[in-house]
Amino acid sequence: MTTPPGSTPLDAGPGRVLSLSAAALVVLVAEPLYLLVDTAVVGRLGALPLGALAVGAVVLAQVSSLGTFLAYGTTARAARAFGAGRRDRAIAEGVAATWLALLAGVAVIVVGQVVARPVAEALGDGGLLADEAVSWMRIALWGAPGILVAMAGNGWMRGVQSTRAPVVVVLAGNGASAVACPILVHGTGLGLQGSAIANVGAQSIVLALFVGALVREAVRLGVPLRPVPDDLRAQLGLGRDLLLRSLAFQACFLSATAVCARFGAPSVAAHQVVLQLWTFMATVLDSLAIAAQQLVGAALGASAAGSVRAVTTRVTGYGIVLGTAAGVVFAALAGVLPRVFTPDAAVLATIPAAWWFFVALQPVAGFVFALDGVLLGAADAAFLGRLTLACALFGFLPVIWASLAFGWGLAGVWAGLSLFMLGRAVGVGLRARGDGWMVTGPA
């Protein structure tokens, strides 16, 4: 697992950025693609199991969302050590993150078994739907350690600029589960519970492969495999700020869906269509941000301030170009693409209220995601957490709730998202122009 021949940890040329981004993109889309397969398999059982899967999957998604600090925080710290020529320290960060992932995963299993019933009843409105969701969750939650270890594993592997290994690991786990899912659900008669078992199987394979790779690296470099309190505290400090950022995002998007639902079924359905496209583009742009994290962290670790500026300029330019191209494509497809998702005339008539905000925001998103990656690579999570929270409290949330109060409809909700993104763009742009975040040297 080394940097490819012909490149260095500080190489930020187009080929290197593309290589890092492509590897990250494969890992990012593997799980959503598997979930589509899982949904299609369970969907053949009928509406009740499919609804139960939706309820259970929402709960499991929160585990992934709240565990993102293990990936982003570990990438930043490991990349800085890697750039400083301390691969052993980068692996030590991976050891610390993996211990945290395992401990958090066990806690999720224990707490999840206790709260599965009340959560399912709250989300599924009781009855048979809640019963089915509980049966799925109580099995699927055993995969939580694997989900979190995968985040930690992706974090330290990205930090040492390993592009192939995380792709192989994630595809192996999800590929095996995609094959096993229809067999367990339909072939053995396990039904919905077969889906949960397939999920746990995938996460178990991923856990074993990531832990195995970490142990091999640690033994080779003489890195202790026991938990080191100082490393754990450093990881948790960075994780606190990243967790605050994740919670702000969740509050915004859950509130937006709640407000849209109050405008009626066509509005919430139209919002869902455009939001899924937004999420897809966020995944694409996030792959560029992950490349920025790796390159900036390595450059700061090597005390190469000039390289940090070069990476920042180049990656930001790529983000704007990619976002602009996406905006042009989605504008051209405005009359065609929504019909792929729904034939409903009322929903199609409502989608334009959000569509043109979505199109116009693509270049802004490219700029914001790129600089998010730069600042995350510098472990500037405290600033990003404060900025995201401020933009949510004073931009997104007031506008969308005013939209409900004054009847602005779906356009008001997406105006709130636009203000949220523009506020973040101003914030990260001003921050990147200064030098306060550019702390060089090993972590």
From TrEMBL:
Principal localisation: membrane
Superkingdom, taxonomy of origin: Bacteria
Location relative to the cell: Membrane
UniProt keywords, alphabetically: Membrane, Transmembrane, Transmembrane helix
One Pfam family it belongs to: MatE
InterPro entries: DinF-like, MATE_fam
TM stretches of this protein: 17-37, 49-73, 94-116, 136-153, 165-185, 197-215, 242-265, 277-303, 315-341, 353-371, 383-402, 408-430
Membrane topology: Multi-pass membrane protein
Record-stated family: Belongs to the multi antimicrobial extrusion (MATE) (TC 2.A.66.1) family.
Name recorded for this polypeptide: MATE family efflux transporter
Species: Actinomycetospora atypica
